[in-house]
Amino acid sequence: MSKSNYNIGFTLIEVLVATGILTAVAFVVTSFAIDIFKSQIYIGDNLEVEEEVEEALNIIVPEVRSITDSSNGSYAIISAASSSFSFYSNIDGDSLVERVRYYLEGTTFKKSVIKPSINPVVYDPSSEKITILANNVISGNIFYYYDKTYESTLGSQLEQPVKVSIIRSVKINLTADKDIILPPLPTSIDAFINIRILKI
Q1: pTM for the predicted model, two decimal places
Q2: In terms of Cα–Cα distance, which of 93, 92, 87 is closest to 68?
């Protein structure tokens, strides 16, 4: 038997080096895959939040634009705070005007609707219907109010407490984020609305 037959194979050092290299490569590949997976989750969460905010604004904008006096003759706007707005608007196109309230409760943006009874016309709080429009709202400053002197988006909003009889326009800003610690940045969408019947 020749001496060369005993030299076939790897030494212990070669095996350890090869194992170390394979481990390092596996670690890098796994870390990269985890980063990609996390990025996809963040992007998915951000799209979900953005979609909620956009849908909420799509609902509220036409209702604010169509604010009107109530079915029993009460003034069109009930109350106007930075995190809530109550008014009357015919949101379903029938002969009665609903009482509508948008408000922030914790981090949840909600809508309340009271449909009046007839003969007599009464807005009974016990008939209130509440729906959730957006979650993860991180700013309580949602509603900004402007009077008839407002001419551009650079104008100043009315100071709180706002006198409802002088409101002519409303700006809504919804800012939401599923996790403020993790990327991406919060979703923030604005809408500026002129109230048709009050724009004098």
Answers
A1: 0.75
A2: 87
- 90 within a domain of the structure (yes/no): yes
Residues 113/114/116/122 CA torsion (nearest 10 deg)? -150
99: how many CB neighbours lie within 10 A of its CB? 23
Letter string b/e over residues 45-61, b meaning 16 or more CB atoms within 10 A of that residue's CB? bbeebbebbeebbeebe
Separation CA 144–CA 160 (nearest Å): 9
Task: Return averaged pLDDT per consecutive 10 residues of the chain, 200 residues in all.
Answer: 57 78 82 62 66 93 96 96 97 94 96 94 95 92 91 75 94 87 79 86
User: Which tens digits make up the pLDDT trace of 134-157?
Assistant: 999 998 899 999 998 876 555 678
What residues make up the domain containing 147?
41-198
CA 115 to chain centre: 26
What is the three-class DSSP state of 193? strand
- Give the pLDDT score at 7: 59
- What one-character DSSP code corresponds to residue 103? E
**Residue 91 lies inside a defined structural domain of this protein:** yes
Give the pairing type, strands 84-89 and 98-105.
antiparallel
pLDDT, the chain, mean: 85
| pLDDT for residue 186 | 85
Q: Into how many domains does the chain fold? A: 1
Is the distance from CB of 64 to CB of 193 less than 8 angstroms? yes
Position 152 in a domain: yes
Contact present, 177 and 136 (Cβ < 8 Å): yes
